Each structure stands twice: as C-alpha cells, then as structure tokens.
Input
Amino acid sequence: MKLREQIDMELKEQTPSEEILREILQNGKPRRFPERRLLLCAVLAAALVAVPVSAHMFGSITETTPITDENRELADQPDIALAQVAPADETGFEEPTLLMDDPEKLAEVTGGIIQKVNEGAFLPDTITVLSLSSNTDGTGWVIPELLTLNGFTTVFTKENGSGWYLKKGETLQMQYQIGTAAKEDSQSPKGMEIGYICDHIFYSGNFMKEQNFSYTLTAPEDGTYYLYNINCCSGKIHITGGDIH
Amino acid sequence: MTEQEEQLTALFRQYAPQIHRMCCLYLKDYHLAEDAVSETFLRAYRALPSFRREASPKTWLVRIAVNVCRSRMRSPSYREPTLDEIPEPGDLTDTPNQIENRLWVCREIMRLPVKYREVILLRYYQEFTVKEIARILRLPASTISGRLKRAKAMLKPLLKEGYFDET
Output
C-alpha cells in the first residue's frame, strides 16, 4: 500500500466541511478566528520593528556577504541570529512569483547575466552577483572570504562584471575552502551546489559535500560562462577563500 | 454563480480533503487544520484572478497551504501538541489500542521535526517530485533530497512496510 492510501485511510473522518466553501463564497471571509488576522498584523508589526533592532544587536545577512575586518563578528554568529525573519510574502495574501519564473526581473536582479533558467533547474530567489579581483600574478581571480545561508546563490564574475568566454572543451576551475576560521561552529563538510550559467541560461549544478570544494567546468559549447554556488545546508557556510582559474 | 466562484468550488471539491489531511499532519491539530484549509481557499479565492496557471492548481494550492501552516506555527499562540494531546478522530468507543493501530502511520509522521515532516508529506502524500517540492518550499532541490533521505531514515518502521516504494 502507498503511504498516501494509508494516510487517507487513517484520517478518513477528516474531511473539510462544505460550510467552509459556503462562507468564503458568501462573505469572502475566513470561517473562524477572524481576530487572528489582527494578531498576525500585530506580530508582523513587531517583527518589522525587531528586524533593525536584532540586526543592530546581532548582525544579520540577507544575501551572500563578504567578510571584512569591519563585519568579522558575523562569521561567529549562530545561524539563528544571522537569519532574517520570514519574508513578508509568506504571510500575505498574494502568492508571489518565484524570481526564476519572471525572466524580466531575473535579468534585472542579475544585471542580465541570467535571463532564463533551464528546464528542470531550480534557482532560489536570493542571488548575489560578486565580481572577483584578479590575483597578483594575473593567472586567476580571487574568491574572498564569504558568508552564506541556506538558499543563497552567488554568481561569480570577473572584476569588470563580465564572464569567461570559453571555446568548446576549454576548462574553467573553481576551488575554495570552508569553515576553517578559529571560532567556526563546525568543521564538518557542508553541502553546496556548484554549476554554471552559459549565454545567460542557468543550468543545474552538481551537489557536493566537502570541506575543500573543487569544480571544473569543461565547456560543452562555445559561449560566455559564469560559475555559481548555492548554499544547500541548513545553516551558514563560511567560505574562507579560493580562486577561479 | 460567477466564473471565479465556480472555479473555487471545483478546486475545493477536488483538493480540499487532501489539503485538509496534510494540514492535520503538519499542525497536529484537527481544528487548526480546518482553519488553515479555510484560509488557504480564501487566499486562493482572492488570488484566482491573478493565477496564471504556470503551476498546476494543486501545486499552487499546496504552496498556499504550506505558507498558511508555517504562519500558524510561527504564531505566538501556537504550541506544537505532543502526541498524547492530539484528539482522536472517529469512533469514541475505540480502545486506546484500536486508536493506536488506526493512526500508527500518521503518528510516526507527526513525530518527525517539521522540516522532515513537510518533505515526507509533499513527496509521499501529495506525490510531488523533488523539483516541485523545491519550488514549493523555495529551497534547493539537493536540500530537499537530503531531508527526504534523513526523514526516511527516521521512519524505519514505515520503510519496512514498503510505504516509500517508488512505482
């Protein structure tokens, strides 16, 4: 028997009353507990006040954030203090469109780098485009110290915001390390998805669970490529440095 | 009846029972679940004119229901019931053993932490793919796969019964 059939059997008495439908159609109101809406508004208002306060007290991040001497304490924060409160769209009435389903907005947010998401790929809403400086000997680009939370996507570019033009078969390699700071909460491997964008199309990446990440892109066709990573673990990932070459 | 009302009625009759049962297991409270179903379909009713059918109606409704359940769970008035506190549906003359047998799968699922419970419900009750769940929960697909794997490991008794066998 399938799980679904078993659950339906166990909860067969649990069927919603048609009265719910009638009340929505007649009044356009919830069937009960309308006062909860007021409570929700109060909670939201409190949360809005709390965000700047908690951000000031603890520091929080809303996207992939470079770590510098000025904000180094962020890397030592517990996950709960780093995360923002739930986005307002989860409590509102409008069902928001995912960024990946809105090509115009997606292009706007990424400066035109991503204009389409390949079929079957999933791109979370929080995207940061990060331009990298070239290293001193000019052989690669330096990935700085970064902090990310679950679902944060980082797209890497050259210092001028452009991608890497590769001919079919040419390679581009990205490597970086995580979680080696002195106060890191855990030095265990953490999951990230790493992949590429080719000619403004975002493709599904490879899931890896490592301490030292290494990803080599072999261009499947001529085109302009960008590399990206997505934090897939439940908490923060502290990238301590790396490069693309 | 207007076209919008007819659409809502059709959606309610087709999907409300399974959304209601999903909310029961999500919130572990039958009355709150009914309230959540009510709010889900109210939101859907208001948003129907702007529903562009890029997702299936089921995906759309389940996404609303998940958001409603999450809002409920974040509410200061919500306290997650323990399994002993969950009222039993159905025949009140059942003995505790009969009840335990009747609800054993549901109870196993309700024991899971919510982040594992929701992926099990979406994958094996609503029968969405991992990618569809990723879209509903707005998380990377690999996060969903990892949570499913851990959730199934926590549900060993159900695993033995073959409830997670893919067909």
In short: Chain B touches chain A through 69 residues (CB under 8 Å). The mean pLDDT of chain B is 83. Residues 15 and 58 of chain B are 7 Å apart (CA to CA). The radius of gyration of chain B is 17 Å.
